[in-house]
Amino acid sequence: LKGTTETVVPSSIMIPITEGLGGLSQEAMAFTILVLLWSVGASAQGPALTALAQEKAPIGSEATALGLPRAVGDGTYIV
């Protein structure tokens, strides 16, 4: 659990900070760097949240925990 928490927390903090600073940036290079940092945070967060859900799942329902992030993601496209 320690490894996933160490990934989830920094990426969860990095994403809104880079989004906020990206909206305020006036130069193309600064905006490009912020987009790259945002993409690192977003790409690290997905697998880490899935691993965290699997670790917290009750015994015998790990497969449901692995499918939950995918189902939630698909639900956002429908709504």
What this model shows, in words?
By secondary structure, this protein is an all-alpha fold. Helices cover 87% and strands 0% of the residues. The chain is built from 3 helices and no strands. α1 (2-24) runs antiparallel to α2 (28-56) and α2 (28-56) packs across α3. The longest helix has 29 residues, at 28-56. The relative contact order is 0.13. The model has no long low-confidence stretch (mean pLDDT 81).
Helical content band: over 70%
Cα Rg? 15 Å
Tell me which oligomeric state these chains represent: single chain
Percentage beta strand:
under 5%
**Strand runs, count:** 0
Number of helices, where a helix is a run of at least 4 consecutive DSSP H or I residues: 3
Structural class call reads mainly alpha
User: Overall pLDDT, averaged?
Assistant: 81
Shape: elongated
| Secondary-structure element pattern, one letter each | HHH
Between the first and last Cα atoms, what is the distance in angstroms? Answer: 32 Å
What profile does the largest beta sheet have?
none
Uncertain parts: none
Write the layout of secondary structure elements.
Blueprint: H1 2-24, H2 28-56, H3 62-78
Task: Produce a short descriptive summary.
Helices cover 87% and strands 0% of the residues.
Question: Key terms for this structure?
Answer:
79 residues; mainly alpha; 3 helices; 87% helix; elongated
